Amino acid sequence: NWISPEAKPYLDKVKTHTASHDIVKNKRYTTGKFFIHTPIAINPFAEKSYHFNEKVHRFISENDVNVLGIIRGERNLLYVCIIDSQGNILEQRSLNVVGGYDYKTKLLQRERERTEAQKDWKEEDKIKDLKKGYLSFAIHEVCSLVLKYHAVVVMEDLNYSFKEKRVKIERNVYQQFETALYNKLNYLVSKDVDPQEAGGLLNGYQLAYIPDSLKQAGKQCGFIFFVPRNYTASIDPATGFANLFYLGALKNKTLTGEFFQKFHSIAYEKNMD
pTM of the prediction? Predict the structure, then answer.
């Protein structure tokens, strides 16, 4: 009786059986239920800002730590280099390919496809899921290196306006990467460690704190440090000299003279080269 007349001619073409129980569509809506939402705050009393950063300073001064440098750019989505306290390179590699998947090539392809779609007034393909997947793998790789080498994280200080201007570029992972790294290092756990041990689920490491905003992160967030771009893009690899003077403002002889008059002396120390 429950089979429609239109469906009866097809009965001999399909296999049927009688269910042992009633089948109700959307059964979850046919009975009354109560839902209890209990949010969990992980590490709710974690220290922030000044006091936590001071503890990090003391730890670094009393222990031999390595440095994990991260470069964010166009040639590589992310490039990591780990050095020891003597400047020896322990490991370095690009994070364009993570988990055997070439994210940079795929993002470049998506960029071209979206550009063509915009020109032809076609529907644009979403790219945020691809970025999200990349950031998840990249953050995992970075945190694994931090634990493996007991390293502090050092990144180029890209000012907020710079990151805002580049937010529309498809390969951009600047702002999203920082936010994800803060969240992960705020309570870092390893699945391979017993939950009760250091680094386990119930006893995770706090290596950073979550700032109220990216603008308030400053030059340090726990074990994450930001250095001026002069120390990364314009540095002499042989001597380590970095030009921190803003010479672009010296437009005439008067300004140039005032600049050099601020020095007590300019000399070359032969013993220190």
Answer: 0.67
